[in-house]
């Protein structure tokens, strides 16, 4: 795009195209999904916002539909997918343990510890974002947290026979989902309930 040469794209057209492309991806991956249009709207618009805000303000932005709407890359749809996964785990468990009753010492594997460390940095990340006026710091943090949770999820069975361990893993899952939703919300990205 170049405004000097008259090559412009209206934002409304861009967002409509993002929604349309997100809908195609959703129909391929999950054709039975209810409220596909609403999910496509959140994913498409979220992808555009995340693509814009994940780049440092002083760098050129690369705009690529396939990269931007990838559910596995460093994208808005990826963090939305991880958020939906956290919700799904909690729904499957059917409850959220009380914070005061959780034995966090049960979370002693490397993936749990790395996820907890990343959660712990959230407040500092928000301070950096505001002091530097740089939303890409938050975008990169959300990708990092989503990747850490994905490693934790792949390495650990969350719903397990041992109640204390399950409670600790469920609460960690809840914390990740809460931070992803909060952080994405600060960037203007809505989270779908299903994908």
What is this structure, in a nutshell?
The protein is 65% helix and 0% strand.
Account of the protein in words:
The chain is an all-alpha fold and 195 residues long. It contains eight helices and no strands. α5 (110-120) packs antiparallel against α7 (136-155) and α7 runs antiparallel to α8 (163-187).
List how many beta strands DSSP finds. 0
CATH topology: Isoleucyl-tRNA Synthetase, Domain 1
* Class per helix and strand makeup: mainly alpha
The CATH superfamily appears as Isoleucyl-tRNA Synthetase, Domain 1
**What overall geometry do the principal axes of the alpha carbons give?**
globular
What is the CATH C level class, in words?
Answer: Mainly Alpha
User: What can be said about the biggest beta sheet?
Assistant: none
> Which percent range fits the helix content?
55-70%
- Please tally the helical runs, counting DSSP H or I stretches of 4 or more residues: 8
Q: How are helices and strands ordered from N to C?
A: HHHHHHHH
Strand content: under 5%
First CA to last CA: what distance? Answer: 31 Å
